[in-house]
């Protein structure tokens, strides 16, 4: 739920001028997310949103430039916060994560466009990566471990 909500927040601030936390709460509720201002405040902090000028003296929430265009840093940050363990089993890689975070990890890995990965499946606390070959499974485990070192 948190991952879906935070993806929706990114979508909302990219599509409209969200000026306050209250505006964001209202926009999320209009999208059927039952949130409080405190939850939105934590999301803003976790997403490291910034305020940028609109040109008429007002400000709106935005995604910082370095977050928008650096998927490796996004993945590293998420892995540092949520990753527990990685293991290869033939051409499959199983990533254990904190509860509720595996979908976010799967989505970030999908965004990396690594050619060795055919696809990902994110559950609650487990992400499954499907690699093309058995050696690529081990290679991906090592690459993931290198990211968090």
Automatic annotation (TrEMBL):
<dbReference type="GO" id="GO:1900079">
    <property type="term" value="P:regulation of arginine biosynthetic process"/>
</dbReference>
<comment type="pathway">
    <text>Amino-acid biosynthesis; L-arginine biosynthesis [regulation].</text>
</comment>
<dbReference type="GO" id="GO:0003677">
    <property type="term" value="F:DNA binding"/>
</dbReference>
<dbReference type="GO" id="GO:0005737">
    <property type="term" value="C:cytoplasm"/>
</dbReference>
<feature type="domain" description="Arginine repressor DNA-binding">
    <location>
        <begin position="2"/>
        <end position="69"/>
    </location>
</feature>
<keyword id="KW-0804">Transcription</keyword>
<comment type="function">
    <text>Regulates arginine biosynthesis genes.</text>
</comment>
<dbReference type="InterPro" id="IPR036390">
    <property type="entry name" value="WH_DNA-bd_sf"/>
</dbReference>
<dbReference type="Pfam" id="PF02863">
    <property type="entry name" value="Arg_repressor_C"/>
</dbReference>
<protein>
    <recommendedName>
        <fullName>Arginine repressor</fullName>
    </recommendedName>
</protein>
<feature type="domain" description="Arginine repressor C-terminal">
    <location>
        <begin position="80"/>
        <end position="145"/>
    </location>
</feature>
<dbReference type="InterPro" id="IPR020900">
    <property type="entry name" value="Arg_repress_DNA-bd"/>
</dbReference>
<dbReference type="InterPro" id="IPR001669">
    <property type="entry name" value="Arg_repress"/>
</dbReference>
<dbReference type="InterPro" id="IPR036251">
    <property type="entry name" value="Arg_repress_C_sf"/>
</dbReference>
<keyword id="KW-0678">Repressor</keyword>
<dbReference type="GO" id="GO:0006526">
    <property type="term" value="P:L-arginine biosynthetic process"/>
</dbReference>
<dbReference type="GO" id="GO:0051259">
    <property type="term" value="P:protein complex oligomerization"/>
</dbReference>
<keyword id="KW-0238">DNA-binding</keyword>
<dbReference type="GO" id="GO:0003700">
    <property type="term" value="F:DNA-binding transcription factor activity"/>
</dbReference>
<keyword id="KW-0805">Transcription regulation</keyword>
<keyword id="KW-0963">Cytoplasm</keyword>
<dbReference type="Pfam" id="PF01316">
    <property type="entry name" value="Arg_repressor"/>
</dbReference>
<comment type="similarity">
    <text>Belongs to the ArgR family.</text>
</comment>
<keyword id="KW-0055">Arginine biosynthesis</keyword>
<dbReference type="InterPro" id="IPR036388">
    <property type="entry name" value="WH-like_DNA-bd_sf"/>
</dbReference>
<keyword id="KW-0028">Amino-acid biosynthesis</keyword>
<dbReference type="GO" id="GO:0034618">
    <property type="term" value="F:arginine binding"/>
</dbReference>
<dbReference type="InterPro" id="IPR020899">
    <property type="entry name" value="Arg_repress_C"/>
</dbReference>
